[in-house]
């Protein structure tokens, strides 16, 4: 069996008394600057199970995360998903269709009008 290198990514979620996220922090062993934990207001994690072929998701955001920030977060995430899909499948037509929706989304939530 081939020996693989590994790297840990640590996510720490601070919860209030009702188990609602108040603080999200993460760090990576591979951080060249070794700056420790970085704070985030939201995170989306999707893991595709090798055996069941199901996707398991963890979606968290802190109480200070504003709607405008969520709109931008979703826009950037959807845009990234379209790019990832294209890179993984080389399906240009579907990736471009996804990008059209991302543009529509940005227009509807007025992402660029606020800048």
What features would you describe in this structure?
It is built from 2 helices and 5 strands, in the order E-E-E-E-E-H-H. It is an alpha+beta fold and 115 residues long. It has 2 domains: 1-64, no CATH class; 66-115. Strand 1 and strand 2 form a beta hairpin. The radius of gyration is 17 Å and the shape is globular. The mean pLDDT is 95.
Explain the layout of strands and helices.
Blueprint lengths: L8 E7 L5 E8 L9 E3 L1 E7 L6 E7 L5 H23 L2 H17 L7
Antiparallel strand pairs: 1-2, 2-3, 4-5
Quick structural gist:
The chain has 115 residues and is an alpha+beta fold. It is built from two helices and five strands, in the order βββββαα. It has a three-stranded antiparallel β-sheet with strand order 1-2-3, with no helix packed on it.
State mean pLDDT (0 to 100 scale).
95
Apparent shape: globular
Oligomeric status of the shown chains? single chain
Low-confidence stretches: none
Q: How many E strands?
A: 5
Number of domains: 2
How is the biggest beta sheet arranged?
Answer: 3 strands, antiparallel
Q: Give the number of helices.
A: 2
Fraction in helix: 25-40%
Strand order of the largest sheet: 1-2-3
Question: Over the alpha carbons, how many angstroms does the gyration radius reach?
Answer: 17 Å
* Proportion of residues in extended strands: 25-35%
Structural class, from helix and strand content? alpha+beta
N-to-C span: 52 Å
């Amino acid at each position: 069996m081939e020996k693989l290198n590994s790297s840990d990514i640590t996510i720490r979620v601070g919860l209030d008394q009702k188990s609602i996220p108040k603080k999200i922090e993460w760090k990576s062993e591979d951080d060249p600057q070794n700056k420790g934990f970085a704070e985030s207001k939201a995170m989306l994690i999707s893991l595709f199970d090798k055996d069941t072929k199901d996707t398991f998701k963890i979606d968290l955001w802190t109480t200070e995360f504003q709607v405008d920030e969520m709109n931008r977060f979703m826009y950037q995430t959807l845009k990234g998903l379209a790019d990832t899909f294209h890179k993984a499948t080389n399906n240009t037509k579907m990736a471009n269709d996804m990008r059209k929706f991302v543009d529509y989304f940005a227009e509807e939530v007025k992402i660029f009008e606020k800048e």
